[in-house]
Amino acid sequence: MYSRIKVTIFAWIVLCVLLAKFVLLIRHLLPGDVIAFGCIAILLLSGCLTTEEALSCFGTQSVVLIAVISILVSGMIHSGAINWFTCHVMGTPRSFVGSIIRLMIPVSLMSAFLSNTTLVAMFINVVKMWSKRLDIAPSRLLIPLSYAASIGGMCTIIGTPANLVISGYYERQTGHTLNFFAPFIPGFISMIVCVISIILLRRLLPDRKSPEESFESSADYTVELIVPAENKVVGMTVEEAGLLDVHGGHLVEIVRFDREIISPVPADEFILGNDHLVYSGQINSILELRSSHGLVNANKLVFNTTDLEKSRKLQMATVDISSPLIGTRMCDINFESLHNVVLVAVARDGERMTSIPREIALRAGDTLLLEGARLVPTNFVGNLNFFDNIALPQVDKTTFISMLLMFSMIILSALGVMPLIHSAILAALLMVITRCCSIEQLQQSINWKLIMSFAGSVCIGEAIKATGLAHQLSVGLQSVVGSSPLVILIILCVISTFITEFISNTTAAAILAPIAITLAMSLNVDPAVFCVAVMVNVNSSFATPMGSESNLMVYSPGGYRFSDFIRIGLPMNLILLVTNITVCYFLM
User: Fold this and answer.
1) What does the alpha-carbon distance between residue 462 and residue 246 come to, in Å, rounded to a whole number?
2) Which position among 64, 260, 279, 588 has the lowest Cβ density within 10 Å, counted as fewest Cβ atoms?
3) 291-317 pLDDT, tens digit each
4) Burial (0-12, 13-18, 19+ Cβ within 10 Å), 59
């Protein structure tokens, strides 16, 4: 398809695209779906991929499976299947070791068939409540939760998006389909080793203060001032009076004498006598308004939990890893007015930030304290992950129907009765017909930003193969280290483990899958072995928060510091690396 010179030129373009994506993902400069779209555009316009090759990445089996499995997961969640399983398995252990076992094994098993990020999002609040009952700091259990969700996904080809990417490449390049349980043996062994290792290294689990403790009292992060009836600012707009954006804070809401609440406060809102002005920000700076504008302290706090439950409420959420809010400030965008919420406070690394909340450039993993009338988490999909006040569905007949459908899909695929994509689509269709999830829930379950990011990763992998870069890297590696399958396997496992600490495991899988298959074919080794090796190692990323989305999701709720993950994650990486290499070697 390409001449030797063109291959070299296009290979360099692909390498530049890879480097750019690597830097952007590490620094969280752009949302993941935007980065993916940019990569696809460059590869297409530069001629690295034809139009047919680029567009075909959106229709690959692995991309379609991501959307279909999202529907299945939605059915499991909304029918109460996961809640039922959790209630009957976790219980009340008598020791910390028992709590680790009761948490990690069920989550690992569920993660083999469900999205690890969905599981973590659901279990964060469960674990926080459970830890209080057990008198254990949530930070001691949230890292094991994240690790269990990641490690369980190794066991099946639908366990993580990375596994789907690799299985898709394997099918396209070999013409054969990976068995549903192809990675089960190394995945299951790694799961057991992971649980045992966490128990042995439990003293390395941090004991940190969670963001909730930073947000415990509304009086700690808000100031309420009253406008006297004869004050000169009465009759002015808040903007004219200079009371909207003030030094050190922002006007969150106005509470009128008749209990009417105005929030967010528009710039042209008039000030009336006896208005309660509620500010968030730097308390000492805001209190200067008393003398500069003739305001007085409120003798009764109106911005408290009791009042909020009657009208508006506070709720916490973390900034998603692919959120367009990353790098922005609330004062520069219309997010608050669009969603009818107000940003009251921000916590980072387990500590509430003392800067003006609306002027803080947000980062992935930041915890936001929002105040609004009806905070519906589904309205914020792709922007924020809510982990408070999660409504748990009731258990009824659809609970067991959804579990039966998921189990049937697995059996049909594993026994070869029906291809995975066919059995998954059939199960998803029956989920809707049997009302395990509604049409609206189905629509909300499909994360189009995730699919764009996923398709972008597949496109890069296709470019690595199409431009000859996979072949060049394969030949270059063999010329340096020789043609020993064991040595190549070790190098592949090491690269897979540590590259995933800095970029998503899906991207790492897309980069390494075509290289692994090319290497296996040149060494006359079963490509399935090298594919499984990449699968288990790209999911063994424990040493950094950005190593996986599940790590990042627990980072802020657990109040962790970056060093917390390194301290326990680095030993875990090494233990799992040795385990995976050993198991994969015996599979060759």
Assistant:
1) 53
2) 260
3) 788 888 765 444 443 444 445 566 777
4) exposed
Task: Flag whether pLDDT at 199 surpasses 90.
Answer: yes
The beta-carbon contacts of 520-527 under 8 Å, at least 24 apart in sequence, are 522/474, 522/475, 522/478, 522/483, 523/478, 523/483, 523/485, 523/488, 525/485, 525/588, 526/588, 527/170, 527/173, 527/174
Average pLDDT over residues 558-572: 86
Residue 361 has φ and ψ, to the nearest 5°, of -75, 115
SS3 for 162? helix
- Quick: pLDDT tens for 246-255: 877 778 888 8
- Residue 4 gets which letter from DSSP? H
Block residue for tokens 């258990």: 395
Phi-psi region of 223 (alpha: psi -120 to 50; beta: other; left: phi over 0): beta
Radius of gyration of the chain (CA): 26
Q: Pairing relation of β-strands 261-262 and 276-281?
A: unpaired
pLDDT score at 551: 81
**Contact indicator for 141, 103 with CB cutoff of 8 Å:** yes
What spatial distance separates the first Cα and last Cα of the chain, rounded to whole Å?
32
- Assign 1 a pLDDT band (cuts: 50, 70, 90): very low
pLDDT top residue among 417 and 220: 417
DSSP string for 487-538: HHHHHHHHHHHHHTTTS-HHHHHHHHHHHHHHHHHHTT--HHHHHHHHHHHH
Give the range among 138-152, 444-458, 507-521, 568-582 with minimum mean pLDDT: 444-458
Interval 168-187: pLDDT, tens: 888 888 888 888 888 889 98
Q: Which pLDDT score is estimated for 213?
A: 60
70 neighbors 445 (Cβ within 8 angstroms): yes
CB proximity list for 521: less than 8 A, separation 6 or greater: 527
Is the CB of residue 347 less than 8 Å from the CB of residue 211?
Answer: yes
pLDDT value of position 575: 93
Amino acid occupying residue 373: A
Structure tokens at 494: 């090491």
Is the dihedral angle over the CA atoms 26, 194, 560, 446 positive or is it negative?
positive
Q: Report strand pairing: 341-348 vs 351-352.
A: antiparallel
Structure tokens at 177: 């389909």
Residues in the chain: 588
Stretch (H or E) spanning 200: helix 184-200
